[in-house]
Structures are given as C-alpha cells and as structure tokens.
Amino acid sequence: MYRVSNEFVNTFRVKLIEGKGFDKMQTNTKEVLINKTLAHLIVENGSALDKVLYRGEQPFTIIGVLDDFSFNSIKEKQQPSMILFDPSRGFYPCVRISNEESTSLALTQINKNMKELFPDMKYEIKFTGDFILDEFISREIRFSKFFTLFSVLGIVVCCMGLFGLALFESNKRIKEIGIRKVNGAQVMEVIALLNKDIIGITIIAFVVATPVTWYAMHRWLENFAYKTELSWWVFALAGLMALAIAMITVSWQSWKAATRNPVEALRYE
C-alpha cells in the first residue's frame, strides 16, 4: 500500500491502463488506484473500475488501474498494490527533474527549501535508480567482479597448461613428424595431427561443463523475480570461444614443430 499525493502518476510516469488518476483538485480520500496484479485478483476478465475494496471496515472505490511498478528488491515478485490518496502521511517527498543538466540546480534548491522549512531535520536525497543499484553494487556487481577475476585466472592457467601439453606432444612426436614430412606430409597436415588431441580434450571438457554451468546459472537466476531465459546459443558461443582459445594457444607450437627441418629430427637415426 502506498500513500501518495495527486501528482503520483505524473511524477513517476506510471502507465495508466484504465480509468483515471488523482486529479489536481483531489480531496476524496476514499478513491484509490490499484496495480494490474491486484486488478487480476479482483476480476479475471473485465474491468475492476468502480469495484469497492475494504481495508478493515473502510470502503475504497477503485477509480484507476496502473501498470505494475515496483520500488522493492528486484528479487521480489510484483505484489498487489493499492495507492491511497493521503498526502499528509507520505514518507518520501518525491521530485522529478526534467533533465540531467538541471540536476545540480534542482538539488541546490531542494536543500535550500528543506533547510528553511525543516532546519533540524536530517534527510537523505536518493534517486529512484539507486534503490536497484545499491543492491547490485553491494552484492551482484561485487560477485561479478570476483567471478570475472577468477575466470580470467582460470583461463590463463588453462592456456599455460595447453601450451605445455602442446610442447610436450610435439617433442615426444618429433621423429614421427620428421618421418611424415620426409614422406611428403604438408605443414597443415602435421598441424592438424598435433591439434587433433587438443580439440578432442576441449570438446570433452565442453560436454562435461555445459550441464554443470546450466544448472549453476539456472539456480542463480531463480533468485530474481524478473530474469532472462538461458538460450542454447550462449553455451554454443562459449564452446566456440573455448575452442578458439585452445587452438590459438597450441597452434604456434604446432606450427613450429610442423615447419622444423626433418633432418634435425632424424640425423641421429
């Protein structure tokens, strides 16, 4: 339940679905606005206008239905809301600033007026977006930075491991490569031979990681009332990027092994 003045709809630009908002000369405190969620609870089909709601024994007549809006946590689902005309009991004086250029001037004027009207009152100015941003900055954005840092470190360690594996494989098969080249193998054929095992390992890792990643992301998204859906192309793109990183990591070493003079590998045989 929200207690507001007659400028609520205009100030917050809430979409009016049907009926009317509070007018500038509003005095009737028994007229209320409701949100779409509450309207669907009152009537599944049809209009909720002129229906009467009771709060205790007090009747309130519905004069308008607003589109859903929320000032709560983004992790909470939209709740049925009733908006009462009761400007004398509002908790937050709210101001819409026309453009960003006038923000500084508007804040200066607000501070001046507050000091004149309520010199001993402590107050804090916040923008509506801050209610959401504060929650993200305190939890989700910090988690994201932490996760990104360790993801980058993990990729670097994996690349070092792949490079070492490619170096080990090329040195272990140096004589085989020399024999193949003497028998007419092309450079690209040798590179494909060395990279084949790396590609296989990467594909196996992708197959194992995909269901684990999907489950973890699905459980994380369940914390939010409004969320995106996990699409298959996200995982496909991640797999292609992993394969590309692996190929870039090992291809340089494979190319060096493939272009080496076979005489150097076979001269002691």
Structural features, described:
The protein folds into 3 domains: 93 residues, no CATH class; 28 residues; 138 residues, no CATH class. The chain is elongated. Strand 4 and strand 5 form a beta hairpin. The model has no long low-confidence stretch (mean pLDDT 84). It has 8 helices and 6 strands. The protein has 269 residues and is α/β, with parallel strands linked by helices.
- Please give the radius of gyration in angstroms: 33 Å
What summary fits the major beta sheet?
Answer: 6 strands, mixed
- Mean pLDDT, to the nearest integer, reads 84
Cα(first) to Cα(last) distance is 89 Å
What's the total count of β strands? 6
Helix share of residues?
55-70%
Order of helices and strands: EHEEHEEEHHHHHH
Q: DSSP helix count?
A: 8
**Coarse structural class:** alpha/beta
Shape: elongated
Write the layout of secondary structure elements.
Blueprint (H helix, E strand, L loop, with lengths): L1 E3 L3 H5 L3 E4 L11 E5 H7 L9 E4 L2 E9 L15 E4 L17 H15 L10 H45 L1 H9 L4 H35 L10 H28 L2 H5 L3
Parallel strand pairs: 1-6, 3-5
Antiparallel strand pairs: 2-5, 3-6, 4-5
Helix pairs in contact: 4-7, 6-7
